[in-house]
From TrEMBL:
A single MF term (Gene Ontology): tRNA dimethylallyltransferase activity
Primary gene name: LOC110773006
Entry superkingdom: Eukaryota
Enzyme class: transferase
Cofactor: Mg(2+)
Single Gene Ontology BP annotation: tRNA modification
A Pfam family reported for this protein in Swiss-Prot or TrEMBL: IPPT
Family, similarity comment: Belongs to the IPP transferase family.
Xref: PANTHER family: TRNA DIMETHYLALLYLTRANSFERASE
Family annotation (HAMAP family): IPP_trans
InterPro entries (alphabetical): Dimethylallyltransferase, IPT, P-loop_NTPase
Protein name per UniProt: tRNA dimethylallyltransferase
Keyword annotations of the record: ATP-binding, Cytokinin biosynthesis, Magnesium, Nucleotide-binding, Transferase, tRNA processing
């Protein structure tokens, strides 16, 4: 008798009427049960394979860790395309300060969400979610591998876990909110605007970054659309964390293990996200960041030139998403000072450089703190040979075991690993390579006098 044509073939045995009937029947039943379980398991595995989630690689890390280069080389190996998860690379003209991939790199490997907006436009995590999900679907449909890379933690969190189910404002409500805040924004009265939104029902508005008018407007839109502040809506990431934590408690473990994360991930997420966080020892990272800041100031077309362009476009530092970006904000403030006094002294330039480097290091520190709490990421040591790291990620992508373990030789510790490292970090001092003496910045100061002085056309 055939029970299932696709998976299980079984039969009813003819049993003798002797005294051994019961024993034979029991043996036959046990054999049948074992065979059925094996065949049912095989069918279950086959069904699971047919429903395997599509894979998406995520490569993140602090600023200056080398994640862009790693993602580029990985895309070449895996026939992939890159989706930028960088809140600054979306802007046209902000190339140097965002370490944007070169035209040659972008021609060799397709990049998404790069150069899609003018600096005067705002960009939000919600818009990134929509754009990145659409790009992911498009890449997969073309038979290629999506490789998401960037260091904007909230962008990546929403992309992986989903966005809160927050209502979208109707055109009438959006217009009403714009009218309420327009004069306050025009007069740069940020504090009064914040108090307006706090009184409307969102006490957390007072913790927004200064002059983040987009988020302030969005908060008021949500209140008017739903009667509740943004914080009232469930965040998918929080649900994921709770499930991981409850699974850990059930297993009497202390920290979420790889098995627990993979188990919850397989149930909850839309794609099979394979996530890596590339970093190096903190002192080495800080040294790399300081040198990178110097490199961004070298030449006539560096970050100062891009900051000049932003100012000439009518934008002010810290006035929107683009001008709040680290590097651009400091450069714009420095150039405004130069315009007001007709030039700059070497001391003022070195003060600006120091502030730029410090802000960049602090940003990297915040990134490390953010991703340290993201259990889905596998931490990799950026100091290891690129080829070794590439081989590991390549093999991980093709691995079917769903139990990825980073070898000790490649693993980057999330915390400071020794007292010596702590001591080195406390005693860290910037050691510039290019700008050491007063005369080293003479070319830049000449450029400032020509382009930002009181008698310049700008």
């Amino acid at each position: 008798m055939i029970i299932s044509s696709s998976c299980v073939r079984t039969f009813c045995p003819r049993l003798p009427s002797s005294s051994k009937k019961h024993a034979l029947w029991t043996a036959a039943l046990v054999t049948f049960t074992i065979r059925r379980r094996r065949l049912s398991t095989a069918c279950s595995v086959s069904a699971t394979k047919s429903k395997e989630k599509e894979k998406v690689i995520v490569v993140s890390g602090p600023t200056g860790a080398g994640k862009s280069r790693l993602a580029l080389e990985l895309a070449k190996r895996l026939n992939g395309e890159i989706i930028s998860a960088d809140s600054v690379q979306v802007y046209r003209g902000l190339d140097v300060g965002s370490a944007k991939p070169s035209p040659g790199d972008r021609q060799e490997v397709p990049h998404h969400l790069v150069d899609i907006l003018d600096p005067s436009e705002d960009y939000s995590v919600g818009k990134f979610y929509e754009d990145a999900r659409q790009a992911t679907r498009s890449i997969l449909d073309s038979g290629r591998v999506p490789i998401v890379t960037g260091g904007t933690g909230l962008y990546l969190r929403w992309l992986i876990y989903g966005k809160p189910d927050v209502p979208k404002a109707s055109p009438d409500i959006a217009s009403e909110v714009y009218s309420e805040l327009a004069d306050l924004q025009k007069n740069e009265d940020w504090e009064a605007a914040v108090q307006l939104v706090v009184k409307a029902g969102d006490p957390k508005a007072q913790f927004l970054a200064a002059n983040d008018w987009y988020r302030l407007r969005r908060s008021l839109e949500i209140i008017k659309s739903s009667g509740s502040p943004p914080s009232a809506f469930q965040v998918p990431y929080d649900s994921f964390r709770k499930q991981c934590d409850s699974s850990v408690v059930d297993r009497h473990d202390i920290n979420p293990s790889t098995d627990v994360v993979e188990e919850v991930k397989s149930k909850e997420l839309d794609y099979d996200f394979i996530c890596f966080f590339l970093s190096s020892k903190r002192v080495d990272l800080y040294r790399s960041i300081d040198c990178r800041c110097e490199d961004m100031l070298s030449g006539s077309d560096g970050i100062l030139s891009e900051a000049r362009w932003l100012l000439d476009s009518g934008l002010l530092p810290n006035s929107n998403s683009a001008t709040r970006a680290i590097g651009y904000r400091q450069a714009m403030e420095y150039l405004l000072m130069c315009r007001q006094q007709g030039g700059s002294s070497p001391r003022e330039f070195f003060n600006f450089l120091s502030e730029f480097q410090k802000a960049s290091r602090n940003f990297a520190k915040r990134q490390l703190t953010w991703f340290r709490n993201e259990s889905i990421y596998h931490w990799l040591d950026a100091s290891k040979p690129l080829e070794t790291v590439l081989n590991f990620i390549y093999d991980a992508y093709h691995d079917k075991s769903e139990n990825l373990v980073v070898p000790e030789s490649l693993r980057m510790k999330k915390e400071l690993s020794s007292r010596r490292e702590e001591s080195e970090l406390k005693g860290y001092r910037t050691q510039n390579r290019h700008f050491v003496r007063r005369e080293d910045c003479s070319d830049i100061l000449d450029w400032i006098r020509r382009t930002q002085g009181l008698n310049s056309e700008s």
